[in-house]
Protein 1
Amino acid sequence: MQLNNSFMACPRPVVPAGPKAAAFSATSLSLVPTHIHSTEAQPRFTATQHDLAEVLLAHAPLPSSVENPEQVKADLFERLSEKLATFVRRGQPVPFYGPSFAFKSPAVGLRSIEEKADAAEKDALIYIAELAKDVQHIYPQGGIFNWFQDGHMFAPFMLGHGEEKTDEYLYDIRRIRNLVSGDQVGNIKLHTSRDFLDAPDLHRMREKFIRTYGQPDLDKVKQKVCDDPRLKADFLGLKKFYEDIYKYLREIGELNISTSALQKEAKATAYQMIQTREAWENLARHQVPEDSIRLSFSLGTVPTKDKLGVYMGTSRIPDRWLTPWHGLLVKDDAEDTNGRCAKEKIFSKFFYANAVGFVPKKDEDGLNYMGFPDSVLDDPAKQEEMLGKIKLLSPGTNMDEVLADYQRPDTEPREPRTIAMA
């Protein structure tokens, strides 16, 4: 389905309040802002658009590798303000978009507790709602945040993720969005491939998707990777990512594969991921207004007026790049035995963790997180020791060293997996 990229002058949907809000599902295909409040011309620069730019840049940190950060930030502020002035003049909501929330990592016990949406995704959606509120606080027309859930098109690259498991994850993301978004639920929209592609099964849907929005010739994709230094760096990062997951699954007995075959499969998968990712990016761009601002969850992204790298959680860690669907959420959920206030007690950061000594728990909404075992709840010194042992994932993490120290969680053995590319 191809949607009109112009703005439509329709009433803003009424979002139920109170208990009904949790059941409200804003999943219609209204990808464009629909609540235009005014079309009268306004001055080219106003305090509103500058304030908007300041709010957005507070959510989009510069990578530490950027040279002359103050100058870069000043130039970006002016360019972003100018772009935002377009929406302010028209009295239109600011349109945002990005891919997100595909599926949970299969590396259970290392990057996830179960292959289900959990408190990490909840934390991310709380953050998105806070960003939406910040925008609306400065600019009453607010913003429309379109998230394109790419699980069905990427599931072949994550071992064991079939259609049913992907559907379950996507459903849970909608449920969590409805729980935590409050009055912003109508402005945070979630879309899947089924909203735009019609095919009798997912295999043929993916073929149609690549043919329509991507480069079907994988050899040309490989050549593009060779020719583009930025894309080559992305490819090498993806290759290592898959090598690490395959090594972990082999370590815990869920994957029977030799080292040479593991490296070969990781390389092949990385190329197909590049192919799929670029096609999905093209699909998303076709469904949103032309001037939409792209949101990226890679904090290695240098912000531009068209693309901002934002945090993906309420805990802001400099240069953190791990997304909630590939990480654990660890909470300092001990009683207030050493004078910490409630806000300081929350240690809700996304960690790649052999979360030493932590145990799976469920929050008030029944979502998994990692917390302290009962045996240390009255022992602040032990708590601090455990928190200090958590290992934050970085691009330079050596998986072989991690696995040498890895303590496999005490869980039931799972079925072996096979690598079966689409």
Note: Confidence is low (pLDDT under 50) at residues 1-30, 32-45, 336-353.
Protein 2
Amino acid sequence: ARIEATRGSLGCTAGCRNPARQAGIVGVMVAPIGDLPSGVLGFRLTGRLERDEYHDALMAPIYAALERGETLRLLVELPDEFEGLDAGALWEDLKAAGSVGLKHRSSWERFAVVTDKDWVRHGVAVFGWLSPGELRVFADGERAQAAAWLAE
């Protein structure tokens, strides 16, 4: 099954609590990655990710794929411009780990993280075993290799 997300289907919705993002004043923090193999869902995160954008732009397409019964092969790119998650997004991430990670554990096939951020690499080294499915970290600039691994 093909997982699809378009720029128009992602982003802060009308219920967004950040008026600047709702008005499009702030740049896209979560952008879908195009040109990925069939069945691979990918996102590039920049700036500091806030709760609404985490939920609406990142998790909504993942929940939709799970509801369609698809297996997940996820690519997340965290370039130098990625600053992390705010407290609200971190809380959403913890809740998602319990609901999506546990409830749909068998749906997660592979998860690739593309980054050179040491704190992300250390976090994956310590907590990666908690991630459902296979998890692998690729160096910045290795998006093509990460996509190829996900498509295997």
Note: Helices lie at 19-22, 51-67, 87-103, 118-127, 143-151.
Protein 3
Amino acid sequence: MATPNPTPANTTTIETRSAMSRLVSWYSSDPLFAWFTFLQIVSYVILGVTVAIGYRLSVNQSTTNQKLEGDLVTARTKLAEAENRTLELQRSVARRQVSFIQMDGRTNVDGLKPFVGLSAVVEFLPQVEPRRVANDIVIALRRAGWAVDDPIPNETFGHRFLMGL
């Protein structure tokens, strides 16, 4: 009786069994090759795990970097705001003075010169800035020709006024 021709599906199954039986017989005949193959498979698994862990770490690092960049932008914005507030504070605390200005033959005390001969008393709170401004006012009045004594500190002056002069 004639053997029926195997179908293509049966052929693949037979070839696979044949390859598996050769591999099994090779393993049983050469233990060194079996260990070599086992170690190759283990190294491929380790490589795959390493790549997966590396990818995960890369994603985590990217997320962390984005968060840190956002924090850096926020910190820089707060720093700029703090610097602006510091400049405003420095301007508000800067030395206030009454300057003598001369321009085109005119000075800023020319408006006081028609009252030459008048006398004035300048009092101030006994603090550094009011003393300095009081001295500047006395100098301006003297340049205008007024009779002005040195400024006088006044302890009770601050109870009537909020300003130092």
Note: The mean pLDDT is 80.
Protein 4
Amino acid sequence: MADQFKPMRRGSGSGKTRSILIIIAIIVLVAMVIGYLSFRKAISGSDSHRSKISGVPSISSVPGVGREPSREYAKLQQQQNVGEAKEALKKQGVALPTLGRSTYIDDGSSLLPTASSDQATPAGCSVDELKRARAAGVTAFE
């Protein structure tokens, strides 16, 4: 019967080993308690960190919504769009124009600049490469 408990005694070893095991167990227990308390605090979500507003602000001048913008505003916006497009062309980047009118009939004088034939097209945008991409099954939505 005494032989059955020998492996347990061997595992506990000397007093030094026992004290190290006890210290490790205490550290693990304290870490678990701290983790549980932190988790519980995060779940509760105190109201002190939330923002409070009295209401939604009323915005009445959103371009393209409701009233049509004035001709002067539309002209200035178009000039800004053209300027941004020219800048994007210089840097071989992209410019997204700001839409100002929901319905606008243009005489063609405000066309945005495009790359001229003497400028090199960006890599992957030549006609042959685009045809190969289309043949491979690439769509405009990808």
Note: The helical segments are 6-12, 15-44, 71-90, 127-135.
